[in-house]
Amino acid sequence: MSLRRMLLPLALTQFVASFAGSSMNVSITSISKDIHTTVHGVQTAITLFLLCMAALMIPGSKLTDKLGRKWCLMVGLSVYGTGAVVAALAPVLGVLIVGYSVLEGVGSALMIPPIYILATMLFDNVESRARAFGVISGMAGIGAAAGPLIGGLITTAISWRLTFLLQAAIVGLVILLSRRIVDPAPADRSRHFDVVGAVLSAAGMFFVVVAILQIGVNGLLVAVFFVLAAALLFWFFLHIRSLERKKVEPLLVRSLFRNRTSNLAMVTQNIQWLLMMGSSFVISVYLQIVRGYSAIQTGLTFTAATAGILVSSLAAERLAKRRAQSTLIRAGFVITLAGIGLGLALGNNTSSVWYLIPGLLFIGLGVGTMLTPSVNVVQSSFPEERQGEISGLSRSVSNLGSSMGTAIAGTILIAAESRAHPYAIAMSSLALFGLIGLAAAMFLPANPVRRQP
Fold first, then answer.
1. Are the C-beta atoms of residues 184 and 68 closer than 8 Å to each other?
2. pLDDT tens track for 360-370
3. Dist CA 50 CA 132 (whole Å)
4. DSSP string, 398-411
5. Residue 422: half-sphere exposure toward Cβ, Cα within 13 Å
6. What would the pLDDT profile of 239-250 be if each residue is shown by its tens digit?
7. Which one of 213, 328, 357, 387 has the fewest CB atoms closer than 10 angstroms to its CB?
8. How much is the pTM?
9. Which strand (E) or helix (H) includes residue 44?
10. DSSP label of 290
11. Which one, of 73, 117, 96, lies nearest residue 27 by Cα?
12. What does the alpha-carbon distance between residue 445 and residue 325 come to, in Å, rounded to a whole number?
């Protein structure tokens, strides 16, 4: 099977996972009415889906070495497809959470790491890898940006439930296309799997996001959950240090955190997805709740962001040849911040939502410009034997950013409802995170990344 044909199912897999994270945003009012819940209930389902991916991505990635990259991909697709069908049939919020948040989240944690591991192992130079990551990251961005448009069309024309059946259909197609994928390295069933480390890392990240969701609701629980998260993550660090001293393979080796360039790039990854998912949620809620827009009207508004991501992602290979990866990441943050600034500056125009179009276009262009180079910098910092671990860590950081974006933006939006211009407050908060991302990008080296053992 040619490399290009292998790339197609990998890119489609990333598309459907990203689509699932954003298509729900435009269906908030339809879903809440249909299953008798609230906007906060739908926000919780979305956040839990993204959180489940983030919490389980590292264990899921580690399993690729033990069970095989193709095996994890196929099982993950099967679990994801089952979850999509369950969500499509959900009569109440609890069942929706089981199908969408849990089963699709677990499926994503198994099927996403093999995408980036296979791409890194199959494409062995900067230009070809940039092309592969450009296609995959582009499909990730397009899935996230096109989710509102496709979801809006389906929800308005038929039902939000059909969006989940569409996901199941795409998953079925990907399973057929993936049958001929050849795993470049054999699975090692004898490898140790760190169960305790997996539980500690997942629980720690879970409580971080749950604490964010409680901001403005219960101050005591916020403090309790943050303390629990810190304690669990510190315990995780002590645990992996203990295993390394005993010469037992931990879930993650500490050397992954000693690569300064990779660490900075993962910070930018986290904030890129935080900005994308956070702004998508805020604008979707604003259009549906404040302006009374239908799902299709909301989805059409996001076409500008989709176009921006598509254009910049397709140019990833050419840009990688002409500019340093760090330069592209910095430029992406500047363009994204300009987009948020445009939305805020033109926000006083309450007679039309057309003022959102230029800002969304710039946000799409900016995010699309920096997604691929950030992934490339992280993955290229380590040799093949560390690809399983760094891929899981990288994807976990990105998905944690997505869940934090929805949680933080949604929490601020709900908390600011009693104040003037809650939309502007939420978007301004996202802009602050964008500045933090830009600051991290300024410290990235301009020279190509050298792989570390």
1. no
2. 899 989 988 88
3. 24
4. HHHHHHHHHHHHHH
5. 18
6. 999 999 998 888
7. 357
8. 0.75
9. helix 39-67
10. I
11. 96
12. 9
